[in-house]
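Run log // design_07
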């Protein structure tokens, strides 16, 4: 019912009048929802002309006004651009402008922030709230992000398997849930305001909507904490033995104790990976002759180390160079400059044959588990392919190894004969993890391994990765833009912005005492699934989008969006250095005006920090 009208009884023509005028929708993926061959102005003006009986000139004027209303700069210019010329956040703003163009009574927002970084997500939430108040519209927000729900919702409906399992006010649902699925869902997400290191996970698989309603299973009566129970693991690598037999029939070992880097964060361990001055620039070629007319500075002179057995989190907005860094470390992309040392071996100087041997110890888990698995190959071939490439074991031994790996990641041996399309997203990611483990590597680059998964499945995969790290002595570089997940998984965290590392520290210190203004903004933008906490938080909203890496700002790359920026910041990029205070030498920041913590008290210097001055040769 919409007012006194039953929408089910309306004709197609009547429903056409309802859509846009009375009910409008913001779709999840603006890139696929916007017509790529029509200008943004055309697409907004179309709805205005259809429902408000306006002429083309007036409709375009209103379209530009709406773009300005939702916070798009230079709206008069932008209205003549195409969707591909907009960033992700700007495309979503354009979708909101289109939705509110006819002043609807109901605005349905279908996962409006799912594909966006936390800083852009905070901007979009602000825009939706502002438009709701300005137009007095009701909003139906469809999302799996409980933090966003806690921030803006008044009432909550929880769905499972196509049915409503719980409905109530925001405080009642979050603080006094009655349904077991709601309990589990609330415990599935890592939170910035909690220090617990194991995620809650729903046991079992997701609901199967094709079953009759009375037969729908409910996963887990309680959100049981996923204890680190030993799984049937193939065993740890014998670091000295390199024979095929040692790999395929490894000697068992009891699970080891807590990681040394986690137990003693102030103690320097032996570095497994050393990266110094890493650069990766992509040439911009134009014209018939494809002459190089510029460079995309995807990664621009970063340095870090990863110690044995630790997890280094790499965070930042989309386009900051995180994934490029991971691929460059493995030489899946040829670095432009810099040094990469893995276990004392210069990766940059390694020959093709030597690089193939090194990749036995360096593997990657890709972001999209479906796109990274060959749809024409069975799981046994996908997981066992690296064993064939490296000529390891007999056919029977390889088959046995594949079965062991599938059991290690929580799958069954019967899954070996299936194809990727027969699995859920979480199961496909487990296959990707099994493939990465096939050669018993020492280092795994986890490139957004859970960003494409639902929250409950995400918790399962996170716990699996942590269990495998404990049992197999793995070292991770964990790439993500979800800072809650990174806090949960990482021993140290490096924050990237526009190809640069702007802050790096032990995880607990960085989350408690961030020094760089960009880190502060990132942390403040992460929604927390707690209505009371959300109401009391102070959010830092960054203006605008990340500048183009093809034309980075002069001086500090963050200064155009920085609330502390001064004239000094435009001169040169500050050096990554320690500011002292409570954080110690392991906390480094690239900022002329960093926040400092002494005795727990925060202060920001009025004079530029001398340690941030770049070397004379910079």
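design_07 sequence
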């Amino acid at each position: 019912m919409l007012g006194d009208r039953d929408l089910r009884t309306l004709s197609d023509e009547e429903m056409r009048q309802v859509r846009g005028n009375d009910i409008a929708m913001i779709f999840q993926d603006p890139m696929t929802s916007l017509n790529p061959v029509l200008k943004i102005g055309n697409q907004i003006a179309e709805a205005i002309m259809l429902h408000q009986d306006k002429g083309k000139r007036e409709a375009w004027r209103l379209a530009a006004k709406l773009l300005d209303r939702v916070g798009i700069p230079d709206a008069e210019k932008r209205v003549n651009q195409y969707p591909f010329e907009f960033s992700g956040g700007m495309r979503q703003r354009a979708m909101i402008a289109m939705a509110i163009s006819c002043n609807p009574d109901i605005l349905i927002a279908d996962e409006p922030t799912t594909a966006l970084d936390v800083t852009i997500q905070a901007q979009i939430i602000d825009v939706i709230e502002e438009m709701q108040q300005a137009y007095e519209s009701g909003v139906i927000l469809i999302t799996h992000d409980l933090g966003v729900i806690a921030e803006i919702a008044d009432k909550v409906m929880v769905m499972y398997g196509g049915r409503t399992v719980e409905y109530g006010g925001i405080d009642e649902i979050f603080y006094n849930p009655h349904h077991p699925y709601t309990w589990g869902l609330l415990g599935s997400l890592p939170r910035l305001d909690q220090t617990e290191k194991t995620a809650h996970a729903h046991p079992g698989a997701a609901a199967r909507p094709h079953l009759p309603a009375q037969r729908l299973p409910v996963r887990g009566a309680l959100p049981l904490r996923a204890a680190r129970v030993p799984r049937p693991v193939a065993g740890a690598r014998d670091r000295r033995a390199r024979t095929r037999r040692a790999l395929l029939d490894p000697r068992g070992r009891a699970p080891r104790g807590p990681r040394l880097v986690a137990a003693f964060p102030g103690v320097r361990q032996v570095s497994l990976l050393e990266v110094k001055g890493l650069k990766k620039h992509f040439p911009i070629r134009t014209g018939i002759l494809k002459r190089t007319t510029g460079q995309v500075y995807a990664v621009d002179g970063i340095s870090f180390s990863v110690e044995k057995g630790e997890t280094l989190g790499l965070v930042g907005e989309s386009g900051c160079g995180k994934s490029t860094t991971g691929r460059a470390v493995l030489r899946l992309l040829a670095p432009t400059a810099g040094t990469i040392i893995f276990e004392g071996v210069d990766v940059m100087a390694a020959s093709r044959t030597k690089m193939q041997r090194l990749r036995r110890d360096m593997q990657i888990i890709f972001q999209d588990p479906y796109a990274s698995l060959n749809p024409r190959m069975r799981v046994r071939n996908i997981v066992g392919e690296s064993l064939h490439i490296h000529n390891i074991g007999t056919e029977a031994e390889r088959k046995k190894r594949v079965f062991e790996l599938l059991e290690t990641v929580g799958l069954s041996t019967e899954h070996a004969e299936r194809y990727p399309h027969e699995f859920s997203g979480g199961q496909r990611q487990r296959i990707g993890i099994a493939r990465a483990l096939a050669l018993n590597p020492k280092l795994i680059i986890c490139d957004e391994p859970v960003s494409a998964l639902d929250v409950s499945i995400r918790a399962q995969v996170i716990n699996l990765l942590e269990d495998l790290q404990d049992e197999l002595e793995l070292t991770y570089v964990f790439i993500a833009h979800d800072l809650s997940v990174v806090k949960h998984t990482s021993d140290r965290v490096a924050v990237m912005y526009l190809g640069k590392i702007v802050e790096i520290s032990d995880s607990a210190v960085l989350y408690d005492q961030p020094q760089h203004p960009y880190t502060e903004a990132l942390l403040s933008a992460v929604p927390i699934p707690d209505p009371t906490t959300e109401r009391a938080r102070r959010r830092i909203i960054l203006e605008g989008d990340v500048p183009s890496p093809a034309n980075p700002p002069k001086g500090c790359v963050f200064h155009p969006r920085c609330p502390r920026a001064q004239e000094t910041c435009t001169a040169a990029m500050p050096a990554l250095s320690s500011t002292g205070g409570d954080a110690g030498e392991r906390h480094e920041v690239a900022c002329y005006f960093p926040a400092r913590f002494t005795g727990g008290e925060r202060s920001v210097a009025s004079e530029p920090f001398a340690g941030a001055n770049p070397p004379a040769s910079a």
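DSSP finds 22 helices and 19 strands in the chain.
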